User: What shape does this take?
Amino acid sequence: MVMELGHKIMKLSMYIGGEWVEGDTNQKRKIINPATGKWIAEAAEGTVTDARLAIQAARKAFDEGEWPNLSAEERASYLLKVADKIDERHDELMALETIDNGKPLREAGYDMSDAAACFRYYAGLILAPHGETYTVPDNMQAMVVREPIGVCGLIVPWNYPLLMSVWKIAPALAAGNTIVYKPSEVTPVTPTKLFEIFEEVGLPKGVANMVMGAGEVVGNEIAVSDDVDMVSFTGGTDTGRHIMKAASGNMKKISLELGGKSPNIIFADADFETAVDYALFGIYCGSGQVCSAGSRILVEESIQDKFIARFVERANKIKVGPGNDPETEMGPLVSQEQMDKVLKYIQIGIEEGAKLACGGYRLTEDGYDQGFFVAPAAFIDTKPDMRIVQEEIFGPVVVFQTFKDEAEAIQLANDTKYGLAGGVFTQDAAKAMRVIKKIRAGITWVNTYHGTYNEAPWHGYKQSGIGSSLGTYGLDEFLETKQINFNLNVEPIGWFAN
Ligand code: NAD
Assistant: This one.
């Protein structure tokens, strides 16, 4: 397999049963650098046949292979080696993530470090005790053991190509499962590198398989297959709904991390500059292509003019540019398709009667015209039922809403179908806690935004998901629970007389 940086086109193959393969039809998909519109790689395009081969490889490795039966310590040693290799290749992976996804190097750098840390976290966690025993009548011993689920299908989006993959792959492998993994068809570059690392550390053949290609083809096959025991998906809510239905054939376990439209609530007593700063970070980090983005800013009425003015002043100064320019603060959108979707939502907002306070247009001057750059946008004069307030745009577009009091802030915060995340800015600790307790969302922040840790679960309420990533909760997703009742008095029960 050839994989080169620079102007040469990278060739990306699939990894099935421990072999690099070009796939059933030998078809290729062009992978584009979103900052330049240039072709950087061609990826093997998987088919249903390829997905089935990968599922069979994973099935065989689980049913007949050594992986599920290795000691936790042995599995952990593989994970630790993978973490070390990610660290060794940090700069290369960071650069690849930037040219594939568009995110600035500084963001890609954090992703690579977090990915290595995630493998280390699960290498450690799998060594912790996982079973339980119960005090039952003296002639019995009841206990619970945790076992791998089997073949896990892992399907991920393009916004954190490596990191979202690792959030699933690390706990799935630590738990002793075998995997069939599908990266987003838009961003397969760093995932391919990760599978090179799996090969380098000698992961047994068939334990980790990667099929690239379209969601409706490869992803769907993983979701419907009777030979897959679980599907863990991160992506849009509509796709999640489809996966839920597709997975019902063999009642496979599902775990879904879905979309969001998260509120960032700014009270008048907040530290003003801190709140403005995090409000900008909450929406424009990742060009707004972050599931937990603070895409609705709810400001207390008494400070709205001052707050919006300062926010807009700073949003206009954000340096938009190619991710590999160290000066760049916000990169392009990931693809032409995503840019078109975002620009369409901006048009919808204007037609709905909201006003653009800044940005919202494509950058077309020299050096930008081939890329997918959109100036950071903010809508004011919004109404709660507008589509731009209710729907996930997944781009650098924020909507401002205002509230009079705590009760209205909570009501507006919960007024969407989503329940992924939310933030509160206030210097009144009791108020912060009261509001956080009422927000129907799984990830919340007080006087900060976006930060999360491998130790803590990542989880959506309502239509933002089912199940959790990260922490002990993220490992539990990939484990079965078996009850064992052991008779210590081996003699007939005598229930029936004859
Ligand atoms: P998407 O739903 O379009 O695609 C996600 C993955 O699903 C891709 O690999 C895609 O190929 C695959 N897919 C598409 N159709 C499929 C089908 N019919 N069957 C099986 N697989 C299919 O999402 P996206 O545009 O790649 O990513 C953006 C979305 O991801 C946003 O909604 C964002 O909020 C969400 N997201 C959520 C989290 C979270 O933790 N909650 C994290 C990151 C992204």
